Automatic annotation (TrEMBL):
One of its GO terms (molecular function) is DNA binding. Residues 26-45 bind DNA. The lineage of its organism: Bacteria, Pseudomonadati, Bacteroidota, Sphingobacteriia, Sphingobacteriales. Residues 3-63 form the HTH tetR-type domain. It comes from the Bacteria. InterPro entries: DNA-bd_HTH_TetR-type_CS, Homeodomain-like_sf, HTH-type_TetR-like_transc_reg, HTH_TetR, NicS_C, Tet_transcr_reg_TetR-rel_C_sf. Gene3D superfamilies: Tetracycline Repressor, domain 2 (1.10.357.10). Signal peptide: none annotated. The keyword DNA-binding applies. Keywords: DNA-binding. It holds the Pfam family TetR_N. This is TetR/AcrR family transcriptional regulator.
Length: 210
């Protein structure tokens, strides 16, 4: 029951921080909406900053463990890469508000310690996709490429869809603020696009010629 309350607090905090920002969302308003008292919130998280960090840590750790498990699977490098794209795009669609909150926190640079905390966790997850790409290059499944810029391309596409949704909505002629459109239209299109782009870019020349 206590763990359920902790999870409810984290879910509520993520929602309010996403809507109101760090400064706009008070711990009292989070506690009230979560249906808990301030004593319980402080017991679990200690402070507003502790709660804020816990919101990010919850998301990062869960996805990081998923990526570690993916890298341990006994499947081909191409299968790992395609699974990664599915997981990555599903995460973007399911955590749309959190993605905006994360990018906002990095961009404002008002809390340098928090920004460093986020970047550190992001790099842990990025290292897992780097492992897939390096493995594929080493076993001959992928051609030699600039891994860092390829990862930047993947993240740049995500940033455009999530953080520049107004421009992306106009370009794609779809309302990306509509969760139904995001999940039924944009998500499958994005998966297909990223997989096709990666296949075109990574497939060795001999495979293309054949």
């Amino acid at each position: 029951m206590k763990e359920d309350k902790k999870e409810i607090i984290l879910q509520t905090a993520e929602k309010l921080f996403s809507e109101l920002g760090y400064d706009g969302a008070s711990t009292r308003s989070i506690a009230n909406e979560a249906g808990v008292n301030m004593a319980m919130l402080n017991y679990y998280f200690g402070s507003k900053e502790g709660l804020y960090k816990a919101v990010f840590e919850r998301r990062f750790k869960g996805f990081h463990q998923t990526l570690i498990s993916l890298n341990e699977e006994d499947i081909s490098s191409w299968e790992k890469l395609n699974k990664y794209i599915d997981l990555y795009v599903d995460k973007i669609a399911a955590q749309n508000c959190f993605q905006r909150l994360m990018q906002h926190e990095i961009s404002i640079q008002q809390r340098s310690e928090m920004g460093s905390f986020i970047v550190e966790y992001l790099l842990r997850n990025i290292n897992e996709i780097r492992k897939i790409l390096r493995e594929g290059i080493e076993n001959g499944s992928f051609k030699e490429v600039d891994i860092d810029l390829l990862v930047a391309t993947l993240f740049g596409t995500k940033y455009y869809i999530v953080n520049l949704s107004g421009i992306a909505s106009a370009l794609l002629d779809k309302d990306l603020s509509d969760d139904n459109i995001l999940n039924t239209d944009i998500k499958p299109r994005l998966k297909k696009h990223l997989k096709a782009m990666l296949e075109s870019y990574l497939k060795p020349a001999a495979c293309i010629n054949n």
